[in-house]
Amino acid sequence: MGVEVIAKPFETKLSAAVLKKAYCEWGEDEERRQQVIEIIRQWVAQQPHLQRTRIDDHGIICFARGCKYSLEKMKTKMDLMFTLRTALPEFFSGWDPLKPEIQAALACGSFLPLPDYDQHGRKVIIMRPGCYDPFNFKPEDIEKASFMISDVMVKDDEQLFVTGMVIVYDCQGFTLNHFTQRPLSLTKKHMYYLQSAPLSPKTIHFIRTNSVFQTIHSAMSALVNDKMKQRLKVHGPEMQSLYQDIDRKILPKDYGGEGKSLAELTDIWKKKVEENRDFLMETEKNLRVDESRRLGKAKTAQDIFGIEGSFRKLNVD
After folding, report:
1. Whether the Cβ atoms of residue 290 and residue 49 lie closer than 8 Å to each other
2. Closest CA to 10 of 74, 60, 67
3. Fewer CB in a 10 Å sphere around the end CB: N or C, the chain?
4. What are the pLDDT digits (tens) for 214-247?
5. H helices of the chain, where?
6. d(Cα 207, Cα 78) in Å, to the nearest integer?
């Protein structure tokens, strides 16, 4: 079976200012975009284990920008991302937004990209690990909902791969039960997956922290390298220092901002995911590898993750 590529000409939707930034940083122009698309298509076609993988031009360009147009880095990250999507069914299987458990997880609002960019042009994503009852929800379902929202976001957003993104980690409602009910192995796998992504957050802001925060902070710090640790910023219960980093005009009303409320954002993203049901269910099937056809030794989940606790730390560019 030959590799399936969506033969759709790539047309960038970026503004002139953002395109200028891409050109200044990586020499990106129409010719270079087309060159990298053709090179990666040819490379994918030569990989037996990727023959069932479908990736469109938009996906290739997202990787190119996230990897600063380094072809070798693109190949490594693409292979790793598709491999992990295959090896992590707890995150990347059962992607039907209409399943009751996914509907319930989406209604929690644990992963909420803001519709506007901050004053630096960056995408801002709100993460809320304490927004659900840890005894009534499986953390795997919360993660699935978050990854589904992320894929829908990436499908419709080019700019974040040029200007970057920041994460606001809202700790309100997070209890020790959230921590103990979530297997550490799940957190480790989640962090491991992040290293395959073509884009890392510029900063992770912790807000509305509570007495359990130190446990979260210590656990996360143990899984990342020194470069990422430097990107973690703790604001505590007050918001003034956050406003210095992110324009309050785009922040939710819940944070003293002028943007849509968390409840409104939750409804918006739930509907977006439902509207993209076909896309998500196709993505679940198509962004995978066939390990039986990999040149050399096939990669199993045990090969990737090893014995419990032997994960590598997150690599950040």
Report:
1. yes
2. 60
3. N
4. 777 776 677 666 777 778 888 978 889 999 999 9
5. 16-26, 30-45, 57-66, 71-87, 89-92, 100-106, 139-156, 160-163, 176-181, 184-194, 213-221, 226-229, 240-245, 262-275, 277-286, 301-305
6. 33
Report the distance separating Cα 56 and Cα 112, nearest Å.
Answer: 25
Distance CA 12, CA 57 (A): 10
The CA dihedral of 230, 236, 241, 245, to the nearest 10 degrees, is 50
What does the domain layout of the chain look like in residue ranges? 16-91+278-305, 96-275
Which CATH number fits the domain 96-275, given the four candidates 3.90.1150.10, 3.90.650.10, 3.40.50.300, 3.40.525.10? Answer: 3.40.525.10
Ramachandran sector of residue 157 (left: φ over 0; alpha: ψ -120 to 50; beta: rest): beta
Residues in the chain: 317
d(CA 182, CA 134): 8
Q: Rounded to whole angstroms, how far apart are CA atoms 284 and 78?
A: 15
Q: Are 97 and 82 in contact (CB under 8 A)?
A: no
**Among 161-170, 213-222, 230-239, 273-282, where is mean pLDDT lowest?**
213-222
> pLDDT for 46-84, tens place per residue?
999 998 888 899 999 999 999 999 999 999 999 999 999
